[in-house]
Amino acid sequence: MRRLLTIILLVFAYVVLAPIAHAQSKCGPRDALAKSFAGQFQEVHAARGQIDDQHIMELFISPEGSWTIIATNTDKMSCIVMGGTEGFEFVAPEVPKPGQGT
Fold first, then answer.
1. Which of 40, 19, 35, 31 is nearest to 82 (CA)?
2. Residue-wise pLDDT tens digits, 35-90
3. Which of 81, 39, 41 is nearest to 57 (CA)?
4. I need a surface site. Which of 61, 72, 77, 79 has the fewest CB within 10 A?
5. What does pTM read for this prediction?
6. What are the distances in angstroms from CA 75 to CA 30, 31, 65, 85?
């Protein structure tokens, strides 16, 4: 019984900790990541949004449809949050004309 519990705990730890360790390897200086996106995927900076007083979210896109989202802290260290190789389409927001309300 104790051996089974040990095996279950080891498998659980691997399943939980492996993705965390993998995600941590996708971090680095913001400018270096941006340069890598441009060189590898022809992605350019497309949008930025503030998450909180310590972090911003940035979106990089390419004409071919690849995209990457990173989170950057105040020390300009960034981590890749997610990305994809296809399926991104830029849709311009509809801005109401003056007098039409929001």
1. 19
2. 999 999 899 998 899 888 999 999 998 888 888 999 999 999 999 988 888 766 66
3. 81
4. 77
5. 0.64
6. 9, 12, 29, 28
